[in-house]
Amino acid sequence: MYYNWASDPEVTRYLTWQPHKSVEETAEILQQWEAGYSKNEFYQWAIELNDIEQPIGSISVVSLNEDVQSAELGYCIGKSWWHQGYTTEAVEAVIRFLMAEVGAGRVWSQHDVANPNSGEVMKKAGMDYEGTLRQSLKDNQGIVDSAIYAKISHVALDEEPEEEDQTSGASVTKVMAEDGTMKNVISDDTMEYVGILAKLELSPEEAEAAKKDMEDMLDYIDLLNELDTTGIEPMSHVFPIENVFREDVVTNGDGSADTLKNAPEQKDGGFKVPKTIGE
């Protein structure tokens, strides 16, 4: 923990605690965590990378509100493992646990607006952007604006869950844009999956441009779905055209006899030509 993330000032830049100055300080924190496991409301996990069998970060419930069944998440990960999807995977797993096992109806998190990468993790983990609270958070940068993201349990609201377009781990989620409308957001995993299906090797710039085009198309489809089509029968063409068939009757023949009249030599109803192979 100390060497992989807790002592790195870049990791703690937008967090609420200072980097650890010694291994002993980290050991003391770990002892406090171990003691906390005796309490039912204490939730603290390590993010472990199987390949090296070492913890590379941590994720925890930093606040609980049982009255509204709400749990706030906090997390961090070592710099060597940034932008590789590990944090998103951990957040998704903890959200599933809190909703299925603990009974949380709302799991939320917040980040310094100067740290948008943390917001990307929240969005990819299925959280929706709820808004920004001005001057509401104090971290190592001072008093800052805080962006709020949350995932709501449909079971807690007694609602049917919205369908999520998923194919082999790829996903499309919806987030609220600054203008208040819901926009489609395609994950990087989806773009990778589409590239595999289409046998395309896209550069990062090409993949980003393609993702933007696909998101715009999905947004337009959502717009079309809002149209009232009550009483309108489905159609396969914009014009009422029907196929007109004629009888399949030969009228002028195939003309092969007239064609063969021009052949210098004929054989078996065809042109006879000199051999070009096998001589």
Description:
The structure is a single chain. With 279 residues, the protein is an alpha+beta fold. The chain has two domains: 2-161, Aminopeptidase (3-Layer(aba) Sandwich); 163-228, no CATH class. Helices cover 30% and strands 27% of the residues. A hairpin with a 2-residue loop joins strand 5 (128-139) and strand 6 (142-152). The N and C termini lie far apart (80 Å). It catalyses: L-aspartyl-tRNA(Asn) + L-glutamine + ATP + H2O = L-asparaginyl-tRNA(Asn) + L-glutamate + ADP + phosphate + 2 H(+); L-glutamyl-tRNA(Gln) + L-glutamine + ATP + H2O = L-glutaminyl-tRNA(Gln) + L-glutamate + ADP + phosphate + H(+).
Describe this protein with a few key phrases.
279 residues; alpha+beta; 2 domains; 6-stranded mixed sheet; 3-stranded antiparallel sheet; elongated; Aspartyl/glutamyl-tRNA(Asn/Gln) amidotransferase subunit C
